[in-house]
Amino acid sequence: MAELGNNERRMLRAMLSNPESTWSLNELLEACEWTDQAHVAGAGLALNEAGMVEIQEITKRLITLGEEGRKALNEGLLESRLFTWIQNQPDEQRLISTMSQTFEKSESGPGVGLLKRIGVTLERGAFVLPENISEIETILESRTNFIQSIGENGIEEDELDAEMVDSFRSRKSIIETSETITRTWKLSNKGHNVNPESLTEKTQIVDLTPEMLQGDDWRDAEFKRYDVNLPAPTPAGGRPHPMQSLIQRIRSIFLEMGFTEIEGDFVRTAGWNMDSLFIPQTHPARAMQDTFYLEDPEKLPIEEHWLDLWAGVHENGGGTGSTGWGGHFDREEAKKGLLRTHTTVNTVKHLADQPNEACRVFGIGRVFRQEAIDKSHLPEFHQIEGIIHEPEASLPMLVTTLKTFYAKMGYPDVRVRPAYFPYTEPSLEIEVKWRGIWLELGGAGIFRPEVTEPLGTEWPVCAWGMGLERLAMLVLGMDDIRELYQPDLLKLRSMPII
Ligand code: PHE
Known about the structure:
The protein has helices spanning 6-16, 25-32, 37-49, 67-75, 78-88, 96-102, 105-117, 134-150, 162-169, 189-192, 210-214, 242-256, 270-273, 304-316, 331-335, 344-353, 395-409, 449-455, 468-476, 489-493; strands at 22-23, 53-65, 121-123, 126-128, 155-156, 175-187, 204-205, 222-223, 260-261, 267-269, 337-339, 359-368, 380-389, 414-419, 424-434, 437-447, 461-467. By secondary structure, the chain is of the alpha+beta class. It has a seven-stranded mixed beta sheet, sandwiched between helices. α1 packs across α3 (37-49) and α12 crosses α19. Phenylalanine binds next to β16 and β17.
């Protein structure tokens, strides 16, 4: 009987003392010397799952008095009180109007209907009783008896007159119905055949403690099996916001892959955010309705030599062999202050600061775009950005890096598709398979010469930028991005641990 716990053994042994019996809860509590009915329920279920005990459930409907019902029990039913009142009035005072002065409106209103239905008639606003009132009295008496039989404690529905139950159920808050389930336990054939001798209770170890391991007692003890499927209370302590946990996890994955973390300011120039990345000055995404430009400071300084280099590349390709975008490069446009629209500004600045050092860097940061808020857009969100700058940097290396990252995140199915960004060639879109569909999670590519030549970098640069919120929606299984940032503690608490 190794698989049975002590409670199961005790309950089975008790039942074997009278093997033919059908046991009630109280009988089992007494026989097992338990006070907590959860023991019977738990052990009974385990024995049932082991095929040794049959459980029978009987559902009973209990009728109790509602608020009006309790009033009826104490003061009499409304129809009885009204009827008594009519009888006590002199003939000429048996009027609806007089009744309305004596009784609350909530009683006199429905009261008239009740009286009519038991045989009281109305003539020009006056109540008229029939010749023989014994019929009315019989009805009232049986109704009163009904209410009294329910009493303070309620009664099983089976014991009441069904028609009466129906008619009172249609009246407001006189009676209420609740269901209770009563269980009984009985040995099955398999249970019958268990030898009670085998059912001795043993010391079972639930938690193994360091102290225990210092001695030898645990060697002969029995270990209680741990069932991870049993329902358990959820501890409601503090926990980091799911987004913070996710950022932490992403950070540790990139660190583990040998990357170094970089950071950067939210406020940048259009020059570093866009021109350095060969985004044409006429690009629609640069417009006011897409980008948050600053009023103060409206412009920020940029070293002239950068402006010279970008002007050359944008106007005619500079020394890169490209023809550039043509037209006139507006240096004042490049100085405009803005809230960064992507974290690619961080990686490009990192390259500009140390163009001759090989690096693998990443950053997780907030970006800003003028988006209308809906279930998949926010004006403020995060990107996971990174570059590999080294002699052997290549497209396969880029794809492998991204696949490795997503595999470590728990998404082994990743594919890349051709895409377009002004600053990479080739350019890719990264897609991850989730519940059978491919979701686009980011962009990547090899920086174009128009980007790298002015920076003076030595080697090819693999670059990528991925959406954090999109990924969070997958990890946390939500379809509305706004849920991430609403202060709904109940919801946040119930989000998966990352
Ligand atoms: N910056 C791009 C975006 O915001 C992503 C990207 C980064 C694409 C680096 C290519 C290279 O969507």
